[in-house]
TrEMBL record:
Keyword list, A-Z: Hydrolase, Magnesium, Metal-binding
Name this polypeptide is given: PHOP2 phosphatase
Active site annotation, chain numbering: 8 (nucleophile), 10 (proton donor)
Similarity comment text for this entry: Belongs to the HAD-like hydrolase superfamily. PHOSPHO family.
Cofactor(s) demanded: Mg(2+)
Organism of origin: Setophaga kirtlandii (Kirtland's warbler)
Top-level taxon of origin: Eukaryota
Keyword check for Magnesium: yes
One Pfam short name: Put_Phosphatase
Length: 241
């Protein structure tokens, strides 16, 4: 009996967007209008690439970025939840699927000593170049019309589950915890026995309820959370069963 927990990162594990938080490192803690307005829908990764170039051009170094990123607050109750999962790793496999990047997530999880809670992190690969600039790439290529160009979370989840099956691992239940519009695609992939846990008041919750109103509901059960303590209460019930 093993459960798979799938977490988004921004506005789910942390209570902010890691990509917009880095702007605190910019001169006067803001970006020039031209750069801010250069974002095109579905091309966030390219936009962040330009932000990182701007920070590098303005002499923002790796250690300053790291200091800034590790001040991001965790979502209410999340520290307790991750501690609880860490204590029950024999029951839970735990992955992150996020549109952030490897450098930010690594910094934040290691600073709080939570990196061991997660078995795998699927996110856009990032690294510092020889000149000290942070660079970011697309996670993968895909053909899903619903998702941003760089990442289809359904594809990530499906490939992970297939790989686990090859290793002889199957899950009693998948629990998907997220907040954003890009979490809807993987939620629609979940089966009747699985659980979607959208964050209260965020896009994912609204999208799921729109689907229900249009009589095209998701197959899985839906449990809304506002604090990660709500998620922990559900997991404790699961373990008791």
């Amino acid at each position: 009996m093993k459960f798979l927990l799938v977490f988004d990162f921004d506005h789910t594990i942390i209570d902010e967007n890691s990509d917009t938080w880095i702007v605190k490192c910019a001169p006067e803690r803001k970006l020039p209008n031209g750069l801010r307005n250069s974002y095109q829908p579905g091309h966030w990764t390219e936009y962040m690439g330009r932000v990182f170039v701007y920070l590098g051009d303005n002499g923002v170094k790796e250690d300053e970025m790291k200091r800034t990123m590790t001040t991001i607050p965790f979502t209410a109750g999340m520290i307790d939840l991750l501690g609880f999962i860490g204590e029950n790793k024999e029951l839970f496999d735990c992955i992150i699927v996020s549109d952030s990047n490897t450098v930010f997530i690594d910094w934040i999880l290691k600073a709080a000593d939570f990196h061991k809670v997660f078995d795998e992190v699927f996110t856009n690969p990032a690294a510092f170049s020889s000149t000290g600039y942070l660079t970011v790439q697309h996670f993968h290529a895909h053909h899903c019309a619903k998702c941003p160009k760089n990442l289809c979370k359904r594809k990530v989840l499906k490939e992970f589950l297939d790989k686990q099956l090859e290793r002889g691992v199957s899950y009693t239940q998948i629990i998907y915890i997220g907040d954003g519009g890009n979490d809807l695609c993987p939620v629609m992939f979940l089966k009747k026995n699985d659980i979607a846990m959208p964050r209260q008041g965020y896009t994912l919750e609204k999208r799921i309820s729109q689907l229900a109103q249009s009589l095209n509901p998701v197959q899985c059960s839906v449990l809304v959370w506002s604090s990660a303590i709500d998620i922990m209460s559900y997991l404790k019930l699961l373990i008791k069963e």
